[in-house]
Amino acid sequence: MHRTAYVDPAFMEDEMGAAFSDTWQYVGPLAKLNNPGDHIVAALGRTSVVVSRDTDGALKGMVNICRHRLHPVALEDGSSKMLQCRYHGWSYRLDGSLLNAPRCRDELQLKKSEHGLLPIAVTTLGPWVFANLDVNAAPLVDLIADCRDFVDQMIDNGRRFTYREQTTTTINGNWKLFVENALECYHCPLIHSETFAKAFQVGNGEYDSRVFANANTQYGPAKLVSESLPEGRSPGGFQFLFLPPNSLVAIDDFAMFVLRVVPTSPTTCDVISDMYVDESMPADALEEWVSIYYTKTMEEDAGAVELQQHGFTSGAVAYGRLLPQSENALAFFEKWIMTRIDLHGSRSTAS
């Protein structure tokens, strides 16, 4: 894509609708929604959403915007018997239906049935919760049918992990640059020589990246075999799944990280990461692994993306280049973006 795709506000306006308005995006761990009243808050593009566990046990998804004055009804993850806007007190049941609107009986005479929170689609893949602003969206499982064996294997491997915490990292780079960095390991031998590349085989012909209709899967065999593995367990290597536009799942022997990349401006983004850990691993070995093979690797990626953003912002070079094999997933992602912009109608020329 042309460099303007990474700096131009008009292009960002196009992709906010084209990439985020009707796609499945990771919103949080199922472990946070065990009981009625539990809810999580996330952003699908610019739209805040809330997913709750209803009293009947079902997951319900809603746009996190009060129907009165558009204030959010939930400010953070938590648990409550209802969702109440803290601005004027309008309250909603866990399924999004309007429960109470102070003073409206005397002044407005509104129909409660017509003023519930706007619904969104919700689904799960194993321990991961996904949402879509389009309530009529095709099921996520249908979109990944051609790589379902790999996804099922990741889901099965993910069962041994326990959710620990969520962190947010602000990146001074376009959201697509961070996604693209995650989609290739061509950079791994150099940028991650003392971190990720020490733990997994990342050389040419060793690291496997496969493109499907609506996903990218990656696998890096284990290089560093930990003595901390439980008896009888062979090293599983590194498994990775990308679901466009912005959901990234990574699993190794010690931990599982699920990331969503949220655009905040044409040249900045937030990377929201949910960390799950294998508590059967010795605590000291687990903490050392996470520190080196996630935290430091993440810092290296963020640094590379921020330096790369300077190159795109400068305007000196109009286009980069992609290696057809080593960067096959980047080509898939960029084509996916441009195809969706074309389908939605576009003002951009960044192709």
Question: How would you describe this structure to a colleague?
Answer:
By secondary structure, this protein is an alpha+beta fold. The chain is 27% helix and 27% strand. The protein contains nine helices and 17 strands. It has helices spanning 9-20, 104-107, 140-143, 148-158, 175-182, 188-191, 196-199, 283-314, 328-344, and strands spanning 25-29, 38-44, 47-53, 59-63, 78-79, 83-84, 91-92, 98-100, 119-125, 128-132, 162-171, 208-211, 216-220, 238-243, 247-251, 255-265, 268-277. The strands form three sheets. The chain has a seven-stranded antiparallel beta sheet with strand order 1-10-9-4-3-2-5, with no helix packed on it. A hairpin with a 4-residue loop joins strand 12 (208-211) and strand 13. The longest helix is centred in the C-terminal third of the chain and has 32 residues, at 283-314. The N and C termini lie close together (5 Å). The relative contact order is 0.17. The mean pLDDT is 93.
